[in-house]
F-box associated beta-propeller type 1 domain-containing protein (Solanum tuberosum), 405 residues
Amino acid sequence: MEFSQADYMNDDSDDNSPSIFKGFSSATTSQRHGIHRLAGYDFKTEAYQKVDEFPAHIIRKGDKKIKDLVKEHVLPFLPAKSLMKFKAVSKDWDKWIASPLLTHQQSFSCQSFSGYFYQNMSKWDMNTMFLSLDPSTIGVPSPALDFLPEVVKILSSCNGLLLCQGLEKYYVCNPATKNWKILPPPWYYHGDEPAIVLAFEPSLRNIEAYYHVICAFPMLDQPIIGFEIYSSESDSWSCSSAYCFDLENPCLVGGGLFMKGVAYYETKSNKVLAFDVKEEIPAIISLPVLQVGRDGSLTQMDGELSYITAFNVCENVFLIDIYQGMEMSLNRSVSINLGPERSLTYACKVLPCVNSDAVAIQVREHIYLYHIREQKVESIASPNACGSAKKFLPYINSLANATLN
């Protein structure tokens, strides 16, 4: 899909504006069927349909111009990096892309898995790096988090926002827009490696999409888990009246996962602690018992909570087991070839994904994506791009506002 620069320009545009549309076609490939349907535009003949053939809800006085159709019905589906480039199209586009309404629409509509933030776990790393699945259309400024006032550890990621921890403070930020906020201090001590989850779900109906931060922490000298919750709406922390008494080992693994209103935390007792954020109800989910030497990861696949394990059977052959549902029953077992040929077997690690049908596997310093439906293996990290002692957070390239309250 190609457009001339003139198609996008308003009357107030600068005639000397640079051409920035080389990445537009690749950025909108997955949305082309939607463009045909909404715009009523025939890309083969490059001609408009008659006005009365447009859907009634987008007809205005006179004919719609292609730049207006694109602005209204395509931009919300593009990743933040592409939108930052398109601000140079005209004053009108710059104003629209910076508006709260477009921010709201894009954070709801653009939900595709964009890549990983990763950081060294063995020491306080000065650099937080980003690994993009499509560098031409998806990315963040580099270095990734140098706009924050101090060095931070990445803790949680959700729908375009990151939760980070400084020496004494929590930060919520959008690394694509460099928008950030310092959270007020919590009432309870969360520890150096807090079991904490960022919960953010953009809503199509409500432009004010607030977020929460939920920390699960063990009560001192008691086998009890408490929950402290930050709300961006009130800009304050509160302690939940709910407690979890059912864990044999109340030791939690740092970080967690949020989806469909529930925060999930892995524990050291082969259980998952689930916490319904709205109702403030905890629950326990049992994980499958694995053979010695096999590790798994809690992740999201096709909108469902999943626990995925991977094991190097021999040489370049790996076995992937996918467990899903509240019962964590085995849903699928797949044997894949990651090539090239190896004479040794290697330990591997499953990385979390979001809004994807793919399984991400780290083998030494390589990262592979196995696409379940296409049965295709894709290498997304070259040798030495990342080491084994790294923490990876899946990321969505969004315009979501971190300072909303």
Notes: Residues 1-52 have pLDDT under 50 and may be disordered. The longest helix spans residues 100-109.
